Amino acid sequence: MEIGELQRVIKERDYKPELVKDYFLKLVEEVGELSRVIRKGKTFENSQSDTIKGTIDEELYDVIYYCLALANIYDIDMEQAISLKEVINKERTDH
Fold first, then answer.
1. Whole-prediction pTM value?
2. Which H, E and C letters describe 38-86, residue by residue?
């Protein structure tokens, strides 16, 4: 699934602009959970489980989810933002 498609799916099922602060707090919470699983080094690939529950994989998805939910609230096309930011990054590394 591409970023734009995921962003549309999230907007269809979870779009509540009045909860912007809650989305941000959830993002911060998910970053904390990501930090915790990174310290443990548990990924889906190296786990003994058939689920991503409790893995870096899961927490990275959750961080992306809330980033995209916030982008939806501010009507930001993340595919466009990524492309524009990559131009800036390329210019910075080319000098």
1. 0.91
2. HHHCCCCCCCCCCCCCCCHHHHHHHHHHHHHHHHHHCCCCHHHHHHHHH
CA angle, 11 then 16 then 18, to 5°: 150
6's tokens: 């995921």
CA atoms within 13 A on the CB side of 37: 22
CA distance 62 to 31: 8
Q: What is the pLDDT of residues 35-93, one digit of tens each?
A: 999 999 999 998 888 999 999 999 999 999 999 999 999 999 999 999 999 999 988 88
Burial 53-72 (b: 16+ CB within 10 A, else e): ebbbbbbbebbbbbbbbbbb
71, 81 contact by CB (below 8 A)? yes
Q: Specify the pLDDT at position 91.
A: 87
Q: Cβ contacts of residue 52 below 8 Å, gap of 6+?
A: 44, 58, 61
